[in-house]
Automatic annotation (TrEMBL):
One of its GO terms (molecular function) is transmembrane transporter activity. This is MFS transporter. The keyword Methyltransferase does not apply. PROSITE patterns: MFS. GO terms for cellular component: membrane. InterPro entries: MFS (IPR011701), MFS_dom (IPR020846), MFS_trans_sf (IPR036259), MFS_Vesicular_Transporter (IPR050930). Keywords: Membrane, Transmembrane, Transmembrane helix, Transport.
């Protein structure tokens, strides 16, 4: 029985997503260490956080369309190997430029994994279980970041950051081998055809529901990454130890997993997508203000409850976006390109918002200004959700 579980392709695909998200989240608790090692400003720290999204910002749509023509499994394994290579090359990082370079390569690997995995799941999962499976898949970011936030500060007590990065890279290589061994999907029936590839790109960017989902997802991910990325630094500014700050932030990331799984269950039970997303954005806005209000006005317990609400109910949004994206792709071979467009627009937001937030906080010396950014993004998300669901009532 245990052997059969480990042979399950869904297991390795989901674990690959969690592993990729660990590489995204591992930098957040390491920012204080990196700021000291490389003399990083808050703007540079924000850039380091968001640079992992640069590959997605530039290439997600094209790689998504390309993967459908060269093979999803091949893209998944290549992505894991890219993560392994970039992370295990930590011994070569001796300057902020090399840090940024390998962070970009990690972003490329993350992109390949997160583009190909949902399309593979659609191929191998029964239709009646897709909402629940997508809820589990959608938890990859929250759980992966949670694992990073919990483990990295502890590991830093025994190892330097280069050793930790190296072992994370080796783990990615091992996962690539397991996916090669246990994941079996249909291969492309024909050789690569540029005209078919370009047609897939065009039909994707001209499909309004996918464009709207991309904007909605960007409104969610950019503010979530900003909050989670800077939260350990916020807690350190309140004289909380790094280890405790990591645990507190990991708790925030973990409840995001609970939110994604809950949304999958609620969708399986028939709850409307529109209600879940509008509620999620509303709670992110409210939670950000509670979380970042001055400690003189609100006790820390209430501030922490605010950031819990922010992450928990915000977790409704990715599950709904991914589930709708699977069903609203313009055609069967455009699923990966649809996710590519969603991730590309999202990556643009994640690339821009953290550095701008760091610049704003560095100029004003007031962390609560991040709540204004959350408010604008949440309001924009609600407007787009309303427009999308009004125009396409079948997906509401």
């Amino acid at each position: 029985m245990q052997v059969q579980v480990f042979r399950s392709p869904e297991l390795w695909i989901i674990v690959a997503g969690y592993s990729a998200a660990v590489h995204v989240g591992k930098l957040s608790p390491a920012i204080p260490v990196f700021r000291q090692a490389f003399d990083l400003s808050l703007l540079q720290a924000g850039l380091a956080l968001s640079l992992v999204q640069a590959a997605g910002m530039l290439f997600a749509l094209l790689i998504g369309a390309f993967s459908a023509h060269i093979g999803l499994k091949r893209c998944l394994i290549t992505g894991l190997c890219a993560l392994g290579l970039a992370s295990s090359s930590s011994l070569l990082i001796d300057h902020v430029v090399s840090l940024f370079f390998f962070r970009f390569i990690e972003g490329l690997g993350f992109l390949l994994v997160t583009l190909s995995a949902p399309a593979i799941l659609k191929q191998i999962c029964a239709p009646e279980t897709m909402s629940l499976k997508m809820g589990i898949w959608s938890s990859y970011m929250g759980l992966g970041v949670c694992l990073a936030l919990l483990s990295i500060p502890v590991l830093f007590q025994y190892f330097d950051w280069k050793s930790v990065w190296f072992f994370l890279g080796i783990f990615s290589f091992l996962l690539a081998f397991c996916c090669h061994r246990f994941v079996h999907v249909a291969r492309p029936s024909t050789s690569f055809d540029f005209s078919a590839f370009w047609d897939t790109v065009k039909v994707t960017i001209r499909h309004p529901p996918i464009v709207c989902l991309a904007l909605i997802f960007a409104c969610y991910t950019s503010q979530w990454l900003t909050m989670i990325g800077f939260l350990p630094s916020i807690y350190l500014s309140h004289h909380i130890r790094l280890e405790l700050a990591g645990v507190l932030t990991a708790g925030v990331a973990f409840v995001n997993v609970v939110g994604t799984l809950t949304a999958g269950y609620l969708m399986q039970r028939g709850m409307k997508s529109k209600q879940l997303m509008i509620f999620g954005f509303s709670m992110m806005c409210l939670g950000s203000w509670l979380a970042l209000e001055d400690a003189i006005i609100l006790p820390f317990a209430l501030q922490y409850l605010g950031v819990i609400f922010f992450s928990l109910f915000g977790g409704f949004i990715p599950t709904v976006v991914f589930a709708i994206c699977l069903n609203c792709a313009p055609r069967a071979n455009a699923v990966a390109s649809s996710f590519g467009l969603v991730l590309q627009v999202s990556a643009l937001g994640q690339f821009m918002i953290p550095p701008l937030s760091g610049l704003l906080v560095g100029h004003t010396h007031d962390w609560s200004n991040i709540a204004w950014i959350s408010t604008v993004l949440s309001a924009t998300g609600i407007v787009i959700v309303t427009l999308l669901m009004t125009r396409y009532q079948k997906i509401a």
